[in-house]
Amino acid sequence: MADTSKKKELSLISVAESAKFYTSLCLGTTAILSVFAFLFLIPFVVDPSISSLMADYDPQPVTCVVTQHVYAEGLRNCSWSSCREGCTKEATRCHQIHVNYSKIPFRDWNYSNHSVEWDIVNTKMFINAEGCGYPPSVNCTEFAKQYGHHTRGIPFPCYYSKVYPEMVVVRYSWDDTLRQLILSLAIPNLLFAASIGVLSYWYCPGCGRSCHKYMHRFPAEDEEHFNDTY
């Protein structure tokens, strides 16, 4: 009876140790992936979001009209681009769009008013605060069709920077930008901290007696020999 009880206890201990091992493996993998995810998000989400918030774009769209649209090819001719598919490579084909904008909110724009004085004239316009992105959210061909030379003189909503008034974008949301920044900072760091915290509690000496509780259940060899003798 005692042997059966001891076998069951050892079996439970073995299962617990196996579960602990695989859980530790998953936590370690999660911690490593969290670090790489955070490093990946810095140039693609964190830095652009911070730059957008610091530029302080007016959250209410104002009124823009296209004044010039140039399609160019070659690195020399594409020193800048209103839209770029991919944020890590140089553009060899580019659409360069210039606009005038008025700080009159687009919702208050009077289409019969053709004598308005523009606040900024012939400035560069970008698809978003970064001027780039990845399909399907950023499609430069569709962007050029929507804001190209054939729409010249037709008012449309845009957003200007209060810090850099010459910066104009057609896509901006303060709420979405802040949400992306918080999520990209919080999720990887919380996963990393939770994983390292649990692993430290289990394996770090002095983090608690519970990390060694399974070791003390196994009798030492001298103790087994003593019990068998007496």
Instruction: Provide the spatial order of strands within the biggest beta sheet.
Output: 1-2-3-5-4
Number of strands: 5
Largest sheet: 5 strands, mixed, barrel
Query: Which class best fits the helix and strand makeup?
Result: alpha+beta
Task: Detail the topology: elements first, then pairings.
Elements: H1 2-55, E1 62-73, E2 93-105, E3 120-126, H2 140-147, E4 156-160, E5 168-169, H3 174-203, H4 221-229
Helix pairs in contact: 1-3
Description:
- With 230 residues, the protein is of the alpha+beta class.
- The protein is built from four helices and five strands.
- Strands 1-2-3-5-4 form a five-stranded mixed barrel.
- Strand 4 (156-160) and strand 5 (168-169) form a beta hairpin.
- Helix 1 packs antiparallel against helix 3 (174-203).
- The two termini are 19 Å apart.
- The relative contact order is 0.17.
- Mean pLDDT is 83; it is low at 214-218 and 220-227.
What brief labels describe this structure?
alpha+beta; 230 residues; 5 strands; elongated
